[in-house]
Every structure is written in C-alpha cells, then in structure tokens.
Amino acid sequence: MMPGEQTVKATVEPAADSGELHLKKTVFLAYTDVTAAASRALLGINMRKEYYSLEVPEIANYKPACVRDAAPEPTEQNFQSIQVLNCKYEQDAEEFSVVVVNTHLPGDKCHYVARKIMNLCIEGKVEKMILLTSLHVDIEHNPDHAMLENTFNTSPVTSHPPIPGHTKICDPFLSTMIQMIQIEGMACNCLITPGYRVTSGKANTEDGTHQMICLFQHTLEELTNLRFDRQLSLDMLYRDSPDNEDDMVSLMYV
Fold first, then answer.
1. Strand order from edge to edge, sheet including 128-135
2. Which of 87, 132, 207, 251 could crosslink 96 through cysteines, CB 3.0-4.6 Å?
3. DSSP letter string over 159-184?
4. How many of the other CB atoms lie within 10 Å of CB of 117?
C-alpha cells in the first residue's frame, strides 16, 4: 500500500452472472505469469461489477491459480480459471472490463485462450487493451523505473521506458496475445514489471509481489477512476504450479 493510503470498500450489490458477456470499450488483461502479481492486482478491483466465467473447452478442467484467503461475502464470488469482471453503474466505469487468465497455461494451450479473448474484443468493438504482466527479462535494473511500458498501435500512457527491442522474452501467452493484437491492429499498452518466479502463498516483500501489486494498482488508479482493495489482493493465495492444490488448501486455514 502506498504511504497514507487506506483501503475503502465500495458499495456493492449481490454478485451475479448477468446474461451474455460483452466486453466494454477498454479491457484490462492479466494472466498467470511468473509472479501472478498483475492477476492479483486486477482481481482486487473494488467497484460494482458483474462476474463472468469465460469457458474455453481446451482447458475445461484447469484450476484457478489465485484464490481468496477466506470465503467470499454475499456481494462477491470465488474466482474462476478465466475471470471476467465488468464494471457497472458508476461514472465512466461502465466502459471498463477486467479479464484475468487465472490458471497455469501450458504453451500448447495459449492460442486457444488468446483467440477466445481476441474474438470477444472484436465482437465487443473494444477500443483499447491495457495488458499487465511481470516478466523475467535480462535487462539492467533502473531504480527510477520499476515499471516498463511497450505500446502497440497507440501512444504511451506512462513515462516509463520500453523494454529494448532486442530483449529475449520467453512467454508463450504474451507472445501469442501480442501477435494477435498486431494482426488486428488493436491499441494496446503493455505495462511490465521485471520479476522472477515466486512460490505459493500470499504476496510478500521478499519476492517483490507486494510491491508489484501495489505498483500496478497505483498506476491504474492514476490513469483511470478504477479503485482497488489492496488488502484483498495482497492476501490472495497464489498456487505456483497446477500440481500443488493440497498445499493451497492448507494455506487457506493457516
């Protein structure tokens, strides 16, 4: 949490899936990368919203990577493997959709999910995507820029520098998504925090996930009128591989 900030719960209504899914004009996208910090940041959105689960048959049995640390309130729902949250009933907020690929995707499944998301964007006439990710990149650390920004078919929204063009990136989902964004000519701002693979559990300062979650949320709050529940995101339990579900259950009751 940034100095002097307080978490304020939004006035919300009972959670419900609300008919057919249509994405709003601006989409915020995160996925289960090396830290899942961006996923945890976006899942902490603290506004009136509609919950949707995006069904992709090829990953029908995949489990969520990030879950709540306690049972949801009546106004909330448990997070799904691909979670969509549509903001509603607030000034300008109805133009925002949050999409989180909240599961571990092997390389041979990425194109199924990326294509599903892109098709929804095309059908909904999405005007801009803001893609949040943490990447293990071999670049010199700049303490003045904890975040990087690369853009496609649009102008930057921050003053952060881009990842140099020669940088090697090994991230199948991001590569697939960017290829589709370029083919479709969609405006996209990619906000990136350098990071390393982290272990299961809550965010913490030792592996940097606490700082990354706060940075992502603070940046979006400065750019938009989105609001976040910091504590919800920081307390969220992350499963670092699809094989340690038993560890996740034990963590929930510590």
1. 49-53, 82-87, 96-101, 26-31, 128-135, 187-194, 148-152
2. 87
3. SPPPPPTT-----HHHHHHHHHHHHH
4. 24
Q: In angstroms, rounded to a whole number, what is the distance separating the alpha carbons of residues 75 and 242? A: 28
Residue 117 CA to residue 177 CA, distance in Å, equals: 9
**Whether the Cβ atoms of residue 25 and residue 125 lie closer than 8 Å to each other:** yes
pTM: 0.88
- The whole-angstrom separation of Cα 61 and Cα 41 is 24
pLDDT > 80? residue 141? no
What's the whole-number mean pLDDT along residues 234-243? Answer: 92
88 membership: H or E segment, kind and range: none
Contact 202, 69 (CB under 8 A): yes
Asked whether 43 and 230 are in contact (CB, 8 A), the reply is no
- C-alpha–C-alpha distance, residues 50 and 5, integer Å: 26
CA angle 113, 116, 120 (to 5 degrees): 140
3-state secondary structure of 23: coil
